[in-house]
Amino acid sequence: DLGMSDSLVAKAIAKQPSLLGFSVENHLQPTLQWLKDSGMDESKGKKTIAQFPNLLSLNIEANLKPKLQWLKDLGMSDSQVARAIAKQPSLLGCSIEANLKPTLQWLKDLG
Tens digit of pLDDT for each residue in 18-49? Predict the structure, then answer.
């Protein structure tokens, strides 16, 4: 339980009304636990969910874990990954193949 304020809850639901239809036990709580296990502290977790509530709708195995691993494979530490996600949580909603890899390659090509 993040103990989010009423205003943060309202903001999250306004951005992602479908959250109200997800199972707490089967979807929301496991995703929240995964965030915590991935190094996201409670304060950053609240802001991240309010900023990008779609995060709670993403599948852990199919979406979240592969992106986290991809960022780590770039050489980022756990704390760097947690900071990057907190600053730009929509990163977890991007496609590795269609968005992240091409952008990384473009940045490398800048030389």
Answer: 999 999 998 888 988 888 888 888 788 888 88
Say which DSSP state 94 is in.
Answer: S
Q: What are the contacts of 94-101 at 24+ separation with CB within 8 A?
A: 94/67, 96/66, 96/67, 96/70, 100/67, 100/70
Write out the H or E segment, with its range, that includes residue 103.
Answer: helix 101-109
* 85-103 b/e (C-beta count within 10 Å ≥ 16 → b): bbeebebbeeeeeeebeee
Produce one character per residue of 9-44: b if its CB has 16 or more CB atoms within 10 Å, e if not.
Answer: bebbeeebeebeeeeeeebeeebbebbeeebbeeeb
Tell me the whole-structure pTM to 2 decimals. 0.81
Q: Report the C-alpha gap between 81 and 99 in whole angstroms.
A: 17
pLDDT tens digits, one per residue of 85-105: 888 999 999 999 999 999 999
